[in-house]
Amino acid sequence: MGFDAILVFDFGGQYCHLIGRRIRENNVYSEIVSHDTTLNEIENYKQKFNIKGLILSGGPQSVYDRGAPKLDPAILGISLPVLGLCYGHQLLAHLAGGVVKPSCKKEFGVTIATIDRAVGVLEGLANQEKVWMSHGDTVFSLPPDFEILAHTEHTPIAAFRHKQKPIYGLQWHPEVIHTVNGMKMLQNFLFSVCKCKPNWTMEDFIERATAEVRQQIGNKKAIIALSGGIDSSAATAITAKAIGKNLTAVFVDHGFMREGEPEFVQKTFQKFPINFTAVNARARFMERLRGVIDPESKRKIIGEEFIRVFEEVARETGAEFLVQGTIYPDRIESGFRKFSDKIKTHHNVAGLPTKMEFKGVVEPLRDLYKDEVRQVAKKLGLPPQIVLRQPFPGPGLAVRIIGEVTKEKVDIERKADKIVTDEIEKSGLKDNLWQYFAVLTDSKSTGVKGDARAYGYTVAIRAVESREAMTASFAKIPHEVLEKISTRITNEIPQVTRVVYDVTHKPPATIEWE
Ligand code: XMP
Prior knowledge:
Bound molecules: xanthosine-5'-monophosphate
CATH architecture of the largest domain: 3-Layer(aba) Sandwich
Strand order of the largest sheet: 2-1-3-4-9-8-7-5-6
């Protein structure tokens, strides 16, 4: 594709993704790559994008630490502009033969930088700028072919550039909002130094992605597992635009969907020119889960059965291509930024493994962040209920029922979940919440209903705030809203005698209970 792009080398800094996001906010494509990316790999990226510059991210280590992440010095010889930030700044200085040492006074937080030369990345900035610092080491000297562009009280070389080559270093973090003119600095790098064109817009993306899908699949048939979630829905919509009726979208109803979900998905996709197949597989999923209590076993069984159902339909369609809703963070997380410890097995149709032989796998959203996927979905005419929907686990309500899954429990859980959803949405709290739902616990407790003793289920309400689900805080829902939910659940669901509110953050808890 002909997008101008910046590669962001990941040295392990907590703001690495933020750098990538900020660049994209300026309509320039960015890709996060591992710090040990080789020259050859950069050449491969050039086949896909017009690489216009490199950014070296921050990182937790010192350039002198054993095993500290390094950059192949040959990369600095390929005449692409380079901007080093924090660790990246120190690494550039170190590779050039400068002196980097622990500073006597560490700088954390907002610091005033004096701009000595407002040129290049610092063009147009004032003499004094508020910048966000977070470093232990400092660059103390540089070879004569470099010049100092800024300093602070404790950092003699807070910004530098090479006198002939487009190589820059900033000790601070321009990507963080506390660096007041951080965006201006990044824009200077993108547009003045790298001469990027701001052509990464979602309209452009849709055009080019559609053409690419059309070219990849040609006049052959393709199939997609459509869950009704944002990713598979957007991938379906884009593929529909590219190949129309040659796409079959398969909606596997495992019986653990929220109320009205199967009907809603079917109705939404009716207006798209595709083949839509809804498979009612409720009985076979229930059968396979009989007697199963262990959460991981449940997840595994549901994942496997899902694939089996999907493969059966796929075979009938004669599809040669499999379309998946994989998005950019999925790729990053399964790539070099691996999570070391597996907490739970996520069943995700975007990562559908399949034993079937497909001629090719098509992933039209593979380069997009979640909010970019939302923009695409909106532009392709998907309704707000899909564009703005909260995440929903692949195994559905089955992992929100603690212990064995039975038909009775699914019915209770579904009703409770609908009440939580309705009341939160009515209360206007929805926009600030990442997720809100009910969990049917396996604790029974004594209650009193209509003057008689009742012994029934305990439902837990879970509502969390989060940015990307890696961490989450329980939401401080007003008591009146909780009261309304609790009253409705105990009134409308006879088998429930008690409602509790989950006040645990993630970590230590996870968002879902299983
Ligand atoms: P946890 O419970 O691990 O969940 O804190 C993090 C986020 O992932 C969602 N989730 C899933 N999503 N397939 C999915 O596509 C799954 O199997 C799955 N399990 C959990 C969860 O709802 C939360 O947003």
